[in-house]
Amino acid sequence: MKLREYFKSGDAWVWLNAGTVTISLIMVVGILGLIAVRGLGHFWPADVMQASYTEMDGSKKILIAELYDEKIDTAARLRESGVEIPAAVQTVTRYSLKVGNRDLGGADFKWVFADRLADIRYPADIVALERYEWGSFFGRLKEVRQSGEVVATGDKAWDALQDRIDRAGELREQAAELEKGDVGRINYALDELRLEERRLVLRHALTEADTARIASAKAVHEKEYEGVRLKLEALVTDAARDSAVFVAADGTEKEITLDKIVAANKPNDMGVISKLGTYFHNVWMFLSGDPREANTEGGVFPAIFGTVLMVLMMTVLVTPLGVIAAIYLREYANQGLVTQIVRIAVNNLAGVPSIVYGVFGLGFFVYFVGGAMDRALYPEAAPSPVFGTPGLLWASITLALLTLPVVIVATEEGLARIPRALKEGSLALGATKAETLWRVVLPMATPSIMTGVILAIARAAGEVAPLMLVGVVKLAPNLPLDLNAPFLHLERKFMHLGFHIYDVGFQSPNVEAARPLVYATAFLLVLVVAALNLSAVGLRNRLREKYKSLES
């Protein structure tokens, strides 16, 4: 009897709801914690061990590696795969070691049996190199060379190495700026001249004066390009002047030019403060750098830039369309059968799989609209398409269609909550319907409108399937926004955080090396989406407080 009264009082349902919310929060925090630990831990300069390892044939070798992962297997499963395990052994512990030195050994990672490792030490003189190519390198520094001549050995070699890596890095950055800046600008100008000449030929309007003018402009750009090329070659040669010799675990000596090295550290000889500094530097390079090694190393800045730019363009497109459609359905359309059918259709569109929008965008926007634009506006570019190929514009429009139902529904709900007396009072005071809509209705519906828009942004930021068809690529050589007119290049393809996660996680040739970047990029994307949702809640609450007096 008491139990029945307890349920009738409603306290049980309150506790049930509280428990459900608590479990949900714990699950969300747990998932975010797992992603954060797995992803952000990648940037910490881990200690590098040196150990003796006994192979299955009884031979011994020296390993220098990072302890990457640990796995406990059943002995029975290993015996089935052909591994000889004593009968008394039930479980076997294995370690995944990041041995690096891919250019010497052919693989970055090696699985070993824990009980076959011996003499595990962490020598302070082991050097961990991060390279632009061939992944990490672990070994000992032997000497530093300049133009093939030894300039530093022993204790002085480390300081000389750091100074010359900084010098090579600065020269490499200058060369990269030349390639992206002057070389890109000159190539863009030459291509524009080629298209202009082709355009005049198609129009049968090419005169001798035009030919001379275009030839003169080409000559100026080609002369400028030759100067930039010579300067670029000088920078590249100067950056490759210095090199260092490292000794691998098996005694092999490897000479590496310093322009191929991103950073060199002695993790076993670093204190906590030094490791923290290196950690934050690595995180910054991840956020601001370009990807390397088939996206398994380097940064994700092009993906961040492409994601933000695409979402901003989508927002500009979807906001007026969604708000105008909702206003028409709520304020102007006759509330009959047709309007109800339209509302049902809008609600159903919100549940259509996103890949369907991608197929529609590819067929209609890219092939039909883009192909027609190329034939009408850019015939000189044929057979190379300009807008008749997936790009930033079509991706933004496709996602605008995808998120349009969210904006329409949220805006309609906001309009429906506005008291009818306010509208009638405005009309009674002499305001027109348009003035009432602009000065009374829309301001009070702004919280719902903004909530719908930002929720649409949050959804668009995480979409991947439609983008694979209408514009996103694995690696974009040029950003859609640069200093070449018209500055914003809507026809260019772009990178995206969501697709970057898919590509690195499922298409990477080096799965073990790519796994931490998958977690790190996923955590970054979750932070972006969470920030957008929190912004929606905060903005909605502020606007609600602002117009609360009108509602009362």
Describe what this molecule looks like in 3D.
The protein has 552 residues and is of the alpha+beta class. The protein folds into three domains: 49-122, SH3 type barrels (Roll), CATH 2.30.30; 141-269; 301-551, MetI-like (MetI-like fold, Orthogonal Bundle), CATH 1.10.3720.10. The protein has 17 helices and 13 strands. It has helices spanning 2-9, 11-40, 75-80, 102-105, 155-202, 208-239, 272-288, 301-332, 337-349, 354-377, 392-416, 420-428, 433-462, 467-470, 497-506, 511-546, 548-551, and strands at residues 49-54, 60-74, 91-98, 109-113, 117-121, 126-131, 136-146, 149-153, 242-247, 253-257, 261-265, 291-292, 297-298. Strands 6, 7, 8, 9, 10 and 11 form a six-stranded antiparallel sheet that branches. The protein is globular, with a radius of gyration of 31 Å.
Please report the first level of CATH classification, the CATH class of the largest domain: Mainly Alpha
Measured by DSSP, the beta-strand proportion falls in: 5-15%
How many separate domains make up the residues?
3
CATH architecture of the largest domain: Orthogonal Bundle
Mean pLDDT: 85
Structural class: alpha+beta
Number-wise, the strands total 13
Radius of gyration, rounded? Answer: 31 Å
Query: What is the helix tally?
Result: 17
* CATH third-level topology of the largest domain: MetI-like fold
- Based on CA inertia axes, which overall geometry fits? globular
C-alpha end-to-end distance = 44 Å
Largest sheet, in brief, is: 6 strands, antiparallel
Helix content: 55-70%
The arrangement of helices and strands along the chain is HHEEHEHEEEEEHHEEEHEEHHHHHHHHHH
Q: CATH homologous superfamily of the largest domain?
A: MetI-like
Low-confidence stretches: none
